[in-house]
Specification:
436 residues, mainly alpha
């Protein structure tokens, strides 16, 4: 704990805090500058400039289409608006969340959303500190924010303008506030924008005993989707929207890079194995595999649910939940930003938070997660700079590193969970770190 005390002393020092804030500002400014230099001109992706491309294709133009009462899933949308392709299978409630952008001009929307992302980074840092049992300070908050924006998922999200931070904060709070059906359910409804978030998150909220929050979340997601449906299709049938959704998803999956064999951003173990086997299992097969394999982690989380402190998202129960959701089902590198919570909690969190883990286990798991978060070797720019060809051994190793590190961390966490269950009790965890 001496290292933790030393860090605490540093991060609460006024001079150090000012230095950390200035460094954070410099990093955010550098990312913003790179966005400008590599700005995605409105229209289909050209394979070179990706700055803010996901904000354009995933948030702004779908919002404009909603304003115009055009389904973002369909062919009409793909032909009418300057986008790469129709929107894949997001929940219709996603468009309700981003609808205000449809009524403002593009440049203003870009600036507003960048500010929103910085706000969400701040929120994630504050949640991380609270869940880790660390008292707030400017220095600590700036330090965690620096960890987030320098990580590959944090930097990549800020650069592309994707809505990952919305999903990440909602996922963490849904787990942390699960015993508060209203708040936990609202956060689940936000995370449910992507089915690949909604399904595993609901499973593990139920495993943690928070089924009431799941019911609230499902109801809110359905309500939000219904609002969009009735707005979009006042004179059309439900089957029309279903056909549009099928079209959008088919266009998405027709992209060769969405196949595990040719994808360098997937981090789930299914994609890693498929890559080495040169196989491309269907979406249905991948979901079915997850539902089967996640039974073991879900049962362990269920058994841990009544142990003191398990409500905390940084607890053993919360850590297993987050690791399973990211290691076993369709995840890209940018989704791993939620792992900042267990990394900070395990490495420097308060003593009461990590009593469930042995000292060596805490640092091994945190180290594996850091490898997954900072694997900048699995990027197109790295491949191009060092002449690494797709399908080569080097390519396979680099693109598998994050997934293997993440899966190894999950195995260690599950082993810890089984050990604690076999002991029949857990050391008491101080619940004072719970969010207010």
């Amino acid at each position: 704990m001496k290292a933790k005390r030393d860090l605490d002393k540093i991060f609460r020092n006024q001079i150090a805090s000012v230095g950390l804030v200035l460094l954070l500002i410099a990093l955010i400014s550098a990312i913003n500058t790179r966005i400008v230099r590599n700005y995605h001109q409105v229209g289909p992706l050209d394979g070179t400039n990706y700055g803010y491309c996901d904000f354009h294709n995933g948030i702004y133009w779908p919002a404009v289409a909603i304003k115009d009462q055009v389904s973002p899933y369909g062919q009409e949308y793909a032909e009418k608006y300057p986008v790469d392709r129709a929107t894949p299978i997001f929940m219709p409630s996603t468009f309700l969340l981003h609808a205000p952008f449809g009524w403002i001009d593009l440049k203003t929307g870009e600036a507003i959303y960048f500010a929103i992302m910085i706000g969400l980074v701040s929120a994630l840092a504050l949640v991380t500190l609270s869940a880790s049992g660390i008292q707030y300070s400017v220095g600590w908050c700036a330090a965690v924010m620096i960890l987030i924006v320098t990580s590959r998922p944090g930097y990549g999200t800020l650069f592309s303008g994707y809505f990952t931070f919305e999903l990440a904060v909602a996922t963490v709070l849904a787990l942390h506030w699960g015993n508060r059906p209203g708040w936990g359910g609202a956060m689940l409804a936000v995370a449910a924008c992507k089915p690949t978030y909604a399904i595993p998150l609901a499973i593990f909220m139920i495993a943690r005993g928070h089924w009431r929050a799941v019911l609230v979340g499902v109801a809110l997601a359905i309500l939000g989707s219904a609002i969009i449906y009735f707005w979009l299709l006042p004179d059309k049938s439900w089957s029309f929207l279903i056909e549009d959704i099928r079209y959008g998803q088919s266009q998405h999956m027709a992209d060769r890079t969405e196949m595990p064999e040719f994808n360098w951003t997937r981090v789930d173990i299914v994609a890693v194995i498929a890559k080495w086997l040169k196989a491309n299992p269907s979406e249905g097969v991948q979901v079915a595999l997850f539902l089967v394999v996640c039974l073991v982690p879900a049962v362990i989380v269920w058994r841990l649910r009544k142990h003191p402190g398990s409500e905390n998202v940084s607890s053993l129960s919360g850590t297993i939940s987050l690791l399973t959701m990211n290691a076993l089902l369709y995840r890209h590198y940018y989704d791993l930003i939620v792992l900042v919570v267990p990394i900070v909690a395990l490495a420097v969190g308060a003593r009461q938070v990590h009593r469930e883990f042995s000292t060596w286990m805490r640092f091994v798991i945190a180290g594996l997660l850091l490898i997954a978060l900072f694997n900048y070797g699995s990027t197109l720019s790295f491949f191009g700079r060092f002449g690494i060809e797709q399908g080569s051994t080097e390519y396979l190793l680099l693109t598998s590193l994050s997934g293997c590190a993440l899966f190894a961390a999950l195995i260690l966490a599950l082993a810890t969970g089984l050990k604690r269950i076999s002991q029949g009790h857990l050391l008491t965890v101080d619940s004072s770190s719970a969010l207010p």
